[in-house]
Amino acid sequence: MNPKKYKKFLLIFLAGMLSLHIVVTWRSRDLVRKGYPDFTALYSAGKILRQGLGRQLYDSQTQFRIQQEFAAGVSIRQGPLPYIHPPWEALLLVPFAYFSYQTAYLLWDTVNVLILLSLPFLLRNHLPQLKRVPALFWLFAALAFYPIFFDLLQAQDILPLLLFLTLAFVSLKQNHDLAAGCWLGLGLFRFHLVLPLVFILLLHKRLRALLGFALVAVVLAVVSIAIIGWNAALSYPAFVWHVETVMGHGAIVPVDMPNLRGLLHTFLAERSSKLVIQLVVAVLSVTLLFFASAKWKFAREGTEFDLGFALALVATILVSYHANTYDLSLLFLPVMLLTNHVAGADWKHGWNRITLLGPMLLLFVSPIQMLLLQKYGKLSLLAPVLMIWAWGLASEISRIGRPSEIPVIQTV
């Protein structure tokens, strides 16, 4: 198949996935209007702060009362859809609370689409093979990527984190470690998806990045305390763990998570205790992070650095304690980085091509994720796909970083 046919096939495939997403969106319009999406929790947090009730931000009765004002038609909820993110993020949601729920939902998704549109411009100077690709194509591809579609449908907040990770990547490429750490600090509203990357930077002894991260973390902690007070701030970790435990009997199920935790629960829950599974997850997670760190440390520049960062992001998803479908939106950055590499790569190893491109393309097949999530409740079966992808990225880093085998003739 020649390159033109590849491009034509790719466009038809992406158009098919996007068309499917449009159909699902249209069929879900009544559920969105009634307040079923996860945006309910974010919107209610903004309304609570707007009403000057910061001290009650994590009070279940207050959350439920506010949500009943605009989402009373959600029959599946007997209590609030809890807002569990750090207090400072709720401050950013206050402007949206001045609009009706439906208007705020559309405005929030508009912001997220603009974030997607900004990514090619942020990366353009660092992805030379993709300078000829229009930014609108990347927006088209992003909307055809099921995790991003699901994020927009739920109006979640993972795309701002994708933006911060992209800015951190650009800063690291430019050796601006302090700025990179600051961008990672701003992603602490999803701390379980940021701390693994910070751990890798710690292993690399990128002290300026760690300093930037710590500075932002301290500032955000002070802001959070000012919003909810000392007592609520001290009890916040217990509140998050309580929600995780209570919802773990229904809404939060490990086998629905595309990570190591979900995969091990899928196959070991009936054979081993919860403690044993957690220990195995911990050991495998630390091992994977050290593995990713070693590969990324070897890759110091060019596409080696890009693939190392992509590997670190895939590892981050795998080791995260909590992951959902929309969290896989972060993998759109590795998609862009890998596409840039593939466009300029010299392909001589068929197996490398399969382990690199196979998992990436599989993540674009929306029906597979829909079936795993909605019918079978086994999104954890995507974890092996991510593990193969991680192995493919690591192998490619080793391949392109291998010293030339051409002998050097020394002359006297």
Short description, anyone?
With 412 residues, the chain is mainly α. The protein has 19 helices and no strands.
Structural notes for this entry:
- The protein is globular.
- The chain contains 19 helices and no strands.
- The protein has 412 residues and is mostly helical.
- Helix 14 (274-298) runs antiparallel to helix 15.
- Helix content is 68%, strand content 0%.
Overview features:
disordered C terminus, single chain, 412 residues, 19 helices, mainly alpha
Order of helices and strands: HHHHHHHHHHHHHHHHHHH
Give the total of beta strands: 0
Low-pLDDT regions: 404-412
Number of helices: 19
Beta-strand percent range: under 5%
Overall spatial form: globular
What portion of residues is helical? 55-70%
| Radius of gyration from the alpha-carbon trace, in angstroms | 22 Å
Structural class given helices, strands, pairing? mainly alpha
Largest sheet: none
| Residue-averaged pLDDT | 90
**CA-to-CA gap between the ends?**
51 Å
What's the helix and strand layout?
Blueprint: H1 3-27, H2 29-34, H3 39-50, H4 60-68, H5 87-93, H6 101-123, H7 135-143, H8 146-154, H9 158-173, H10 177-186, H11 195-203, H12 207-247, H13 260-268, H14 274-298, H15 302-319, H16 332-343, H17 350-362, H18 366-375, H19 383-400
